[in-house]
Amino acid sequence: MEKGILLIVSGPAGSGKSTVDALLCAGGDYERSVSYTTRPMRPGEVNGREYNYVSVEEFLALEKEGALFEANHFCGNYYGSPRRRAEEVLAAGRNFIMEIDVHGAMNMKKIYPEALLIMLLPPSYSEQEKRLRGRGTEPEEKILARLEQTKRELDFLPQYDYIVYNRDEKAEDAADEIRAIVRAEKQSVRRNPSAKDAYLAN
User: Fold this and answer.
1) Which of 14, 109, 137, 145 could be disulfide-bonded to 131 (CB atoms 3.0-4.6 Å)?
2) How far apart are CA 200 and CA 202, in angstroms?
3) What pLDDT is attached to residue 1?
4) Nearest CA to 2 among 187, 201, 190, 197?
5) DSSP secondary structure string for all residues of 58-112
C-alpha cells in the first residue's frame, strides 16, 4: 500500500490554518494530529479535539516510551506530538497533518526528513493585520506582537517546501492547492527511489 505523507502546516496568526486543515480532513484522506498537553482544559474545549489532556505523569510516561515525535515545555505546561497515531495513519495510506509553529517544524524536519513542509499565509501582510483587527478579541499590544512575530517566522520560509496563500473566502481553494501538492509529491522521484527496479521487474 502507498504510504501517506506527513504534512507539516505552519502559518502566522490569521492565516486560517485550522479552517484549511478541517477542510482537508473532511475528505477522509487526511487526519489532523491532536497533540498531548498537560495544560488545563479551557471552557468550550473537548478532550481529543483541541488536545489530548493528560497529567504530567502521563505525559512523561508517553515521552519515555517513545510515543511522541517531539515534546516542548511552554508556559509551565508540556506539549507533544503523537508518534504512534501518525505512524498508523501513514501506514494505512492516509496523510497526517501536524499544525505546528516554525520551531516545531524545524525539529520535525530533523526527526522525520520526508515530512512535507507547507507555509500557509494570508494574501498579504496588510491583509493579515486586517484579519487580526477584525477579530476584535485581542488588545492592540497583542496584535502588534503577533505581527512582529510573523516577521520572525518568515525568516524560516526558505526551509519550507511550499507556500500556499489562503485568500479571503477562498479556504477551499487553499485546501485544493494542498491536495494537489500532496498528489504531486507522491509521484516525485525522491519519494519513489525504487521506481526503476519496480518498473523493470514487471
Assistant:
1) 14
2) 6
3) 61
4) 187
5) HHHHHHHTT-EEEEEEETTEEEEEEHHHHHHHHHTT-EEEEE--HHHHHHHHHH-
Closest to 98 measured CA to CA, from 113, 82, 114, 110: 82
Q: Among residues 72, 193, 31, 177, which one has the least CA distance to residue 118?
A: 177
> Distance between CA atoms of 42 and 34, rounded to whole angstroms?
16
SS (H, E, C) 102-114: HHHHHHHHHHCCC
Contacts with 68 (C-beta within 8 Å, 6 or more apart), sequence order: 36, 62, 80, 81, 82, 83
Q: What count of residues does the chain have?
A: 202
Flag whether pLDDT at 121 surpasses 90: yes
Amino acid at 45: E
Mean pLDDT of 172-181: 97
